[in-house]
Amino acid sequence: MTDKMTPQQRLVLVIAILGTFVAFLDGTIVNVALPAIARDLGGGLSTQQWTVDAYLVTLGALILVAGAVSDAFGRVLVLRIGLIGFGIASVAVALSPNPELLIAARAVQGAAGAFLVPSSLALISATMREPLRSRAIGIWTASTTGAMIIGPLIGGLIVDHSSWRWAFGINIFPIAIALWMLTRLEHRDERREGARVDVLGAVMCTFGLGAAVFALIEQPNLGWSSPAIWMPGLAGLLLLAGFVWRQRRVSDPILPLDLFRSRNFSAGNLSTLFIYAALSLNGFVLAVYLQQGAGLSATLAGLASLPTTLLMISLSSRIGTLAGRWGPRLFMTAGPLIMAAGALLLLLVADDFAYWWQVLPGMIVFGLGLALTVSPLTSTILGAADSARSGIASAVNNAVARVAGLIPIAALATITGGALDLAGFHRTALTTAALLIVGGLVSLIGIRNPARSAAAQPAADPPGP
Predict the structure, then answer these.
(1) DSSP string spanning 349-387?
(2) Is the whole model's pTM more than 0.85, yes or no?
């Protein structure tokens, strides 16, 4: 088995990175643009929350559908649909004249983004075997997670030197490149005979999630006793429960519950829930507080996370290789705990703000922990499913990550105590650390290293976040 990629495999990797890059980038680039969007279009904290969560709701709900469609109808087809839809929605976001249309366009953007992530990873899984696959996933992880973290920097530069609208308009360039590269790809999709998608399940999942998140976001304004809050909240929970019940009975489920019989798949997704909730909370609050609380420009607020980005890019591929050799449990346990230490270092932030000793140490420690965590986590989830279901396995993990990301943003007022001042920032740092500690303990207890003989075999067990 060669350890070098063929030209076609390298092309697959670049396409997968570009396809996922724009979805992950827009998930974080918006954070640093929120104050500028609010100044331009109006709206308070609720509008800012929905600008983030409208994207995450549709992304998290539809990513399961996209994973099922990817496995049934082909990775290249789904990837092409996602790229075209994401490009159109990005232009709509950039041209939005008011908050309502912006939020609607963000929801469409999230729906298109749902088709990008699982098909990208499944394409890697379909065209590579070990040890190339682990190496490719490490490179993919470094690139795409780097997009999540470097998003605030790119957004800051654009906001300060142009308009927040270009933070979304620039998506058309990598999308156009990826679409052109797809025409050069020799891999051909194989449609599964008799394949179907559970449309009713998709509707239940989407509306259930949307209603529950609406209740969380608007609860601080109206209170739990308001029918406008408890009725959609209850309806959302009932729809989500009905969705899970339905998945046990339909012949082509969006969410195959038997995947969770794998210990590593279950524990890996539970760990993902806590880790990505912490990542989303930390990224949102840091980008907004450094501008509104510490008085930094959008560019400087974006630069604050650059050390984390550099550590991710430089270490992820190497960490992926080491985790493949030693097993993921050590990395998935130590990484979140180190990130928690980095979050706690943000308690040094004071009214007399100084980035170099109040923020930078936390960013360095946080980045080291993140680099230790993400690639092993991705490979573990993908390795817990057979290759025919790599798309849905990837989709499940990404759905967990996106839903985990939207919940703390929806509950932001409760976490901060109602205001994103210094005290609210400190509460957020403590909450972030607590979530990461739980994520690390879940990995310690639940993750099992694969037997060396099994790890050395080509590919009975592939990837999927």
Answers:
(1) --SS--HHHHTHHHHHHHHHHHHHHHHHHHHHHHTTS-G
(2) no
